Amino acid sequence: MEPYVACMSVPPFQADPEGPTYVYVQVADHIAARVAAGDLVPGQRLPAERDLALEYGVAYLTIRRAMRELRERGLVITVPAKGNFIQPNATEGAGEDAEA
Q1: Residue 40 burial (C-beta neighbours within 10 Å; 0-12, 13-18, 19+)
Q2: 3-state secondary structure string, the chain?
Q3: CB of 77 closer than 8 Å to CB of 84
Q4: What values do phi and psi take at 79, rounded to 5?
Q5: Whole-angstrom Cα distance, residue 30 to residue 79?
Q6: What are phi and psi of 75, to 5 degrees?
Q7: Structural domains of the chain, with CATH
Q8: What is the mean pLDDT of residues 77-88?
Q9: What is the C-alpha separation between 91 and 58, in angstroms, rounded?
Q10: Which pLDDT belongs to residue 96?
């Protein structure tokens, strides 16, 4: 499967497993950048974690850790048996987290 390609304002995701940042943080940063760019909008449901793993070319548990990271940043809420959603006020702090 092809690596995930976001809208034109956010570069495609390229994992750097040898870099100083964990891959799950890289995924979380990429999703945060998509929120800041308006590619993902507040209230939008994210694809299932297994689907995101396929899109990003990473393990399912990497996506699960990325979702935890995004919850801690206040960008995502998880509703049991429903999925992960972009927080209603997520655009307020998304750019700061994506650049960090």
Answers
A1: buried
A2: CCCCCCCCCCCCCCCCCCCCCCHHHHHHHHHHHHHHHCCCCCCCECCCHHHHHHHHCCCHHHHHHHHHHHHHHCCEEEECCCEEEECCCHHHCHHHHHHC
A3: yes
A4: -110, 115
A5: 22
A6: -95, -20
A7: 23-99 (1.10.10.10)
A8: 96
A9: 25
A10: 53
**Placement of tokens 């655009």 in the chain:** 91
Which long-range contacts does 8-16 make (Cβ < 8 Å, 24+ apart)?
9/37, 9/38, 9/39, 10/34, 10/37, 10/39, 13/56, 13/57, 15/56, 15/57, 15/58
Q: Which amino acid makes up residue 79?
A: V
**Which residue in the block uniquely carries the two structure tokens 């393990």?**
59
Lowest mean pLDDT among 8-12, 22-26, 38-42, 59-63: 8-12
